[in-house]
Write a structure and sequence with these properties.
Length: 317
């Protein structure tokens, strides 16, 4: 568990406990009961709204449990509802802060390395999926194949969002030093959107003349971008500077030259409406991926620079 996640767990548990204790104590005070039927009615009145709130806000899932404890403890110990609520808050606060300080002082774990690991896994999956999608352009891919190829990328991005949020909590609380995770997360999300566009283009195979003429340029573009993504992931992990984008530029230039030749020959005028849509969507998606690769390079530069600054500060201290 990272320090950021420990901070969130402590905050959520305290907020849920305080809210549940206040509401449970208020219900017990304003709706006194002396029978089991009355206790059941009061429990229903206390738990139902809090359970609905917990369903909408999972971070407050402890609130209905706290309300139940606050209502039932006086029945067993004959303490007042206010005393029961205070005891519950004190106990949870002691446990929460103890766990948090143990996480910070004894077993600290920065969330930024977790962000890097998640980004590397995502880049590897995007690179693999890109090669398979571009290889399927000539024959066309069905939806099951598209889902299989892109399986896991969405889950990897979700996991990255989680650890990125933990890293931002650490930065906000000044518990860790690191770059803003937002640009990197947004860049990977845009690369994912590029894959979706390429996947749509791959569902409708182009005429044979286009497939034959574009097979080699498209293959070279896919290999160049995939290699760039993997190399950028390795640079992130080793805290090195950005990778050269020259191979991607050359591959895209060759692809653009071939597209221009096809248009000069008038072959694009023979495309149907759907074929033209997917044909130009592919070119747009590759250009967008090229632009997003540049953004990825800037993110790699920022993370490498942040790591060097942090090491300099540690060395001086």
């Amino acid at each position: 568990m990272s320090v950021g996640r420990a901070l969130k767990a402590t905050f959520d548990y305290l907020v849920g406990t305080v809210g549940g204790a206040i509401y449970g104590a208020a219900i017990a005070v304003y709706f006194p009961h002396s029978s089991e039927l009355g206790l059941l009615a009061v429990l229903a009145l206390a738990v139902a709204p809090l359970a609905l709130l917990a369903a909408m806000r999972p971070s407050l899932s402890v609130a209905p449990i706290t309300a139940i404890i606050v209502l039932l403890v006086p029945e067993m110990t004959h303490a007042s509802p206010i005393a029961s609520a205070l005891d519950r808050v004190y106990g949870v606060a002691l446990g929460g802060f103890t766990g948090f300080f143990v996480s910070v002082l004894l077993l600290p774990s920065n969330a930024h390395p977790l962000v890097i690991n998640a980004a590397v896994r995502t880049l590897e999956q995007i690179a693999r999926a890109l090669g398979e999608l571009l290889a399927g352009l000539g024959k066309g891919l069905d939806m099951d194949s598209l889902h299989r190829i892109q399986d896991g990328i969405g889950q990897a991005l979700t996991q990255m969002n989680v650890v990125a949020a933990e890293a931002e909590r650490e930065r906000s609380a000044r518990l860790a030093i690191g770059p803003d995770t937002g640009p990197l997360v947004r860049t990977l999300l845009r690369l994912r959107h590029d894959l979706v566009m390429i996947g749509r283009a791959a569902t409708n195979p182009l005429p044979e003349v286009f497939t034959t003429r574009l097979e080699t340029p498209v293959s070279h573009v896919g290999i160049a971008i995939a290699d760039y993504l993997r190399a950028s992931g390795a640079a992130l992990r080793s805290h090195r500077g950005p990778v050269s984008l020259e191979a991607v530029d050359l591959a895209l230039h060759s692809y653009t030259v071939e597209i221009a030749a096809l248009r000069r020959e008038g072959l694009t005028r023979n495309l149907t409406g759907d074929e033209a849509e997917y044909f130009f969507a592919l070119g747009f998606a590759l250009e967008q991926m090229h632009s997003n690769c540049k953004d990825l390079g800037r993110c790699v530069t920022e993370w490498a620079g942040s790591y060097k600054r942090a090491n300099g500060e540690n060395t001086q201290s």
